[in-house]
Amino acid sequence: MVLFQANNDTAIISNEKESTYLEILSKAKSISDRLFKRLKNERIITSNTSPYDFIISLLSIWFSGNIPVIINPNFTTAQRIELIKELDINNIFNEITKDDISDSGEITNSLGNSFDFDLKFNSTKDNALILFTSGSTSKPKAVELTFANLINNFHCINSLVPIKNNEKFGLTLPFYHIGGFQIIFRALFSGNTIVIPETFKSEDIFNSTQSHSINYISLVSKTLFDFIESDYQFHAGLKAIFLGGGFPNNSIVKKAIEKGINIYKVYGSTETTSMIAGFFCNNFLDKIDSAGLPLFDVKIKIDKDGHILLKSDSLMKGYINYPNSYQDKEWFNTFDYGHIDSDGYLYIDSRREDMIVSGGENINLLEINNIIDAHPSIISTFSFGKEDAKWGQILCSAVILKNGICLTEEELKDYLKKQTISYKIPKRIFFLEKFPQTELGKIKREELLQIIDSYEQ
Hints:
This protein has helices at about 20-35, 50-65, 75-85, 145-160, 180-190, 200-210, 220-230, 250-260, 365-375, 410-415, 445-455, and strands at about 1-5, 10-15, 20, 45, 65-70, 90-95, 120, 125-135, 140-145, 170, 195, 215-220, 240-245, 265-270, 275-280, 295, 300, 305-310, 320, 325, 330-340, 345-350, 355-360, 360-365, 380-390, 390-400, 430. It is α/β, with parallel strands linked by helices. The chain has two domains: about 1-350, ANL, N-terminal domain (Rossmann fold, 3-Layer(aba) Sandwich); about 355-455, 2-Layer Sandwich (GMP Synthetase, Chain A, domain 3). It has a five-stranded mixed sheet with strand order 12-13-14-15-16. Helix 4 (about 145-160) packs across helix 5.
């Protein structure tokens, strides 16, 4: 089966260049022949910071019949070493060199017509890639996805908004997360154009959307908040904004709708290969609090504990080196809590107990607790999310200091800047003398949050 077809249609637009399908596929084929000719079905790490270079590296690895392992560039050296060891990886595809991505000599007459560059694969069951996601522990889990997962998820979005020819997708999310990766895949699979903004800053996303007349963009709630606050006016050809990545502020969603922006709320994860539920908010304001209806072949039910269970060909092949969360005839347990109304709309009551989503980033609260607890002056930490109009949720932590220790919020934040990346640093830190606990030592969450709320009044 042909996955991507080489032709002279525009595949990628970035600030530096425009490239056709023939150009990017021929470049990828050339790199594949030079670097991966002797490898087959091997896991190869790619960790590019440039979206354009990443796409070329991805195609190169696929051409060779190998499996890309997509690493977040923000992973620490220690995390990389641990993941390489765990996945038994022997090959790392570093940043593509200037020579590799040069235009000269990539397309030669000796290779014949454009069909020589068509990217094909043998079976939809073939492994397509490995992505990492935060799970119920502080250690990222490796998620294995097949070509069937990627293609099926394309049909999910296509069932929500039919994708036509000669359309443009904005790469408005990081490609090392499933949301950003699927922007790339659905654009290439449908033969359309990927537009790469200068940065993921809200202003650059807006400018790129306007200047290139982009038809589809995917956003987290923070970016939509920035658009509304800045009173941006979008061009009429913007068919859809897909809004996901956590709990969106519905007042902001309503303001966007009032401005005539087409908002589609969507729900999904790395394990589901991106969106598997969604709806067009503009036509169903009475369902604004929901995550929408199941898409394409997706089936959803709620188990006796209130967990959301899913069944779909979009579901991952599995976690690598972790037990799968499949139950009862291949149903996948998201461990999110929710309910389904009489019209079949899914509502997310709460995410996994140890996770929050802030600005589209999954944050594992257990990991944050462990990082802060490593400070020599701290006895105990309790991290949590608070609703926020801009970020969806913000990360906060309550800490207990050792007797006689004086530590300010800014001093603790300065310490954390050396320990982790910026989005994992709490925006608010509260110093308490003790945590309310049950007789078994479990923190009384609601009582603790009431105490913290009283601090802010």
